[in-house]
Amino acid sequence: MDSFFIQKPDENTNMFIDFRTALAMYNFLTGDSSALSNWSYLDNQAIVILVILFSLLVFVYLMNLFIGLLNMAINKDNERVSYLKQKAEILTEIELFYLLPNQRRWKSWFPEVIYYYANVDRTREEIKRLISRDEWNADAFPEMIERFI
Fold this sequence. Notes:
Layout: H1 2-5, H2 23-29, H3 45-98, H4 101-104, H5 120-132, H6 142-148
């Protein structure tokens, strides 16, 4: 009874012609070429050429998309680095050329010791990672390498 209402696919059935069968294109994008299984590749060399061209063009398009996204991420990082570098240059210029010698000696502006907080656990993990990769300079901190090994 179903054979009266549904046509069985054969070599003349085009799975890409109707919106209801547009899922065939999505399946083709994901690598499922069963929509082309009705045609023999030996008899239809145009289909082989189109499949190869489609695969290459999708690959090139996706690689360009990936390169563009990666480029945007690198530019964002470079903008931050450029900002910090320019800020350091401006502060250096202000300290050298626009401050009087007595202002440069003020301890409230230029303390001898600068306090910095670092997470101890993350610092130890980083030191262990550097030691395991032989990137840790043992001559600079010989007492630290003895504690962490």
